[in-house]
């Protein structure tokens, strides 16, 4: 069974996806990490994040893999490097390119294969796995998402001010929602969950209950 979890940054998507996968015993695929690796490699190579040809080449050669929660590129552990603000910003620009998206979408489908898997991203339910058996779309008010991100950055000793972070988040939302290819939106058959008023545990509990229901419906 394929479970897709899409939505903007800061909705608690990654935490939920990881916990849900663990609770139901499914694999987990963080597709945002893949865009982040391409962005990191582009920055390291000094390539403009607007150069489609260079980005395409970088994506083809990225050789991205996952191992026990770590993200690797050509065997190098880049789990921490892909979480910086610089890479976060570049990833959103890199994700605009159809060449990058097409290559990563193929990788994502190959990775999922016939496994039981939770795939998390922006376009998993709409573009990558339109026939997924169970689709979620998480939302939350931009101010709540900013507050959550601020806490994460504080915990990493990278204090940032609320207003500039809110502005960045709104700008990235706009870019993700307005891009020509695979814009961020819920699939028609996705269950939309507002995580704003819910605790992370409640989010996971609700999602797991729905997945179990679908598993029963679709039989052994
Ligand atoms: O979920 P995240 O913040 O790690 O994603 C990083 C960037 O990649 C973000 O700008 C959105 C983009 N992305 C995407 O366009 N499609 C996906 N399936 C996953 C992420």
Question: Which key phrases capture this entry?
Answer:
15% strand, Rossmann fold, 9 helices, five-stranded parallel sheet, binds 2'-deoxycytidine-5'-monophosphate, 220 residues, alpha/beta, three-stranded antiparallel sheet
Description:
This protein has 220 residues and is an alpha/beta fold. The chain has two domains: 131 residues, P-loop containing nucleotide triphosphate hydrolases (Rossmann fold, 3-Layer(aba) Sandwich); 83 residues, Rossmann fold (3-Layer(aba) Sandwich). The chain is 53% helix and 15% strand. It is built from nine helices and eight strands. The chain has a five-stranded parallel β-sheet with strand order 2-6-1-7-8, with helices on both faces. Strands 3-4-5 form a three-stranded antiparallel β-sheet, covered by helices on one side. β4 and β5 form a beta hairpin. α2 packs across α4. The longest helix has 19 residues. The radius of gyration is 17 Å and the shape is globular. The termini are close together. The relative contact order is 0.21. The structure holds 2'-deoxycytidine-5'-monophosphate. 2'-deoxycytidine-5'-monophosphate binds next to α2, α4 and α8.
Topology, pairings included?
Elements: E1 2-6, H1 13-24, E2 27-30, H2 31-45, H3 52-61, E3 64-67, E4 70-73, E5 76-77, H4 85-94, H5 98-112, E6 117-121, H6 124-128, E7 134-139, H7 142-155, H8 162-178, E8 191-194, H9 200-218
Helix pairs in contact: 1-9, 2-4, 2-5, 3-5, 7-8
Bound molecules: 2'-deoxycytidine-5'-monophosphate (DC).
Give the count of structural domains: 2
- Name the CATH superfamily assignment of the largest domain: P-loop containing nucleotide triphosphate hydrolases
- What is the CATH T-level topology of the largest domain? Rossmann fold
Which CATH C-level class of the largest domain is it? Alpha Beta
Mean pLDDT across residues: 93
The CATH architecture of the largest domain comes to 3-Layer(aba) Sandwich
β-strand percent reads 15-25%
Q: What structural class results from the helix and strand content?
A: alpha/beta
> Which blocks of ≥5 consecutive residues have pLDDT under 50?
none
* Number of helical stretches of at least 4 residues: 9
Give every kind of bound small molecule, once each.
2'-deoxycytidine-5'-monophosphate
Radius of gyration: 17 Å
CA-based shape? globular
- How many β-strand stretches? 8
Q: Termini, distance in Å?
A: 11 Å
- What summary fits the major beta sheet? 5 strands, parallel
Note the quaternary state here.
single chain
Helix and strand element order: EHEHHEEEHHEHEHHEH
Q: How much helicity do the residues have?
A: 40-55%
Strand arrangement across the biggest beta sheet: 2-6-1-7-8
């Amino acid at each position: 069974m394929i479970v897709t979890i899409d939505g903007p940054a800061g909705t608690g998507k990654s935490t939920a996806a990881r916990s849900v996968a663990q609770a139901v015993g499914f694999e987990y695929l963080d597709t945002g990490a893949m865009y982040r690796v391409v962005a990191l490699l582009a920055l390291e190579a000094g390539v403009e994040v607007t150069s489609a040809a260079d980005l395409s080449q970088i994506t083809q050669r990225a050789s991205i893999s996952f191992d026990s929660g770590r993200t690797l590129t050509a065997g190098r552990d880049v789990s921490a490097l892909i979480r910086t603000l610089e890479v976060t910003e570049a990833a959103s620009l890199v994700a605009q390119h159809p060449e990058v998206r097409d290559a990563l979408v193929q990788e994502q489908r190959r990775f999922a294969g016939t496994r039981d898997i939770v795939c998390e991203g922006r376009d998993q339910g709409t573009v990558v796995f339109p026939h997924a058996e169970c689709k979620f779309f998480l939302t939350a008010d931009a101010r709540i998402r900013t507050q959550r991100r601020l806490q994460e950055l504080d915990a990493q000793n990278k204090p940032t001010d609320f207003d500039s972070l809110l502005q960045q988040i709104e700008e990235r939302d706009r870019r993700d929602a307005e891009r020509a290819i695979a814009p961020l939106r819920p699939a028609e058959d996705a269950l939309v969950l507002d995580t704003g008023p819910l605790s992370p545990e409640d989010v996971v509990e609700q999602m797991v209950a729905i997945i179990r229901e679908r598993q029963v419906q679709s039989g052994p």
